[in-house]
Amino acid sequence: MPTSSKTTVPEPPAAAVAQDPHWTATRERLRRRHRPIATLTICDDHEARTGLDRAKRALQMVQAQAEADPDDQDLKRDLATAQTAVDQAQRTYDEAAIVLRFQAVDRSVFDALKKAHPPTEEQATDGEIVNAESLGPDLIAACSLDGITAEEAREYLDTWANGEATALFMTCWNVQGETRMDLGKG
Questions:
Q1: 16-69 tens-digit pLDDT
Q2: Residues 166-174: contacts with CB within 8 Å, 24+ apart?
Q3: pTM confidence score
Q4: Which residues contact residue 148 at a Cβ distance below 8 angstroms, ignoring those fewer than 6 apart?
Q5: Quick check: helix, strand or coil at residue 37?
Q6: CB 46 within 8 A of CB 186
């Protein structure tokens, strides 16, 4: 007969509490952390993309001139005009763009997905650790914060241009390894 066991939260080490009386609050913050999120922005509007790029380049040129001559009032006006152009171009780009959001899954889920999609014999010989072709749709669906299903992901991977399909898969793969910490000297 199965018995249920309740997981208890261990007490913090006495030495840690003595060194940092706020250790309990720190532990709680660590528990509440969210897994990393990555976005993939798709903009099929060529004019919106190039317009934004041109506006940003123009702003950079004016900024460089303004840094060289910070008292020039004409450059200050040009800088404001260039910033307004970038803001407008960004709005146009944002209206045309599709932003997909992906969140890293728990390590156990990621490990299970990799285990469920082992490399073929040929892939293993080539040094691959998973069968990316079969893993892709499941990983994308598991990571999607927008509700992309495995079936939709398979369609995207099969029909999008190779670079775009690769970017979709790699966004989900890479968010698993994202780190948001700095290693300091003790």
A1: 667 776 877 888 889 999 999 999 999 999 999 999 999 999 999 999 999 999
A2: 167/40, 168/40, 168/100, 168/140, 169/132, 169/136, 169/139, 169/140, 171/38, 171/39, 171/40, 171/100, 171/102, 172/38, 172/102, 172/136, 172/139, 172/140, 172/142, 172/143, 173/132, 173/139, 174/38
A3: 0.79
A4: 100, 140, 141, 156
A5: strand
A6: no
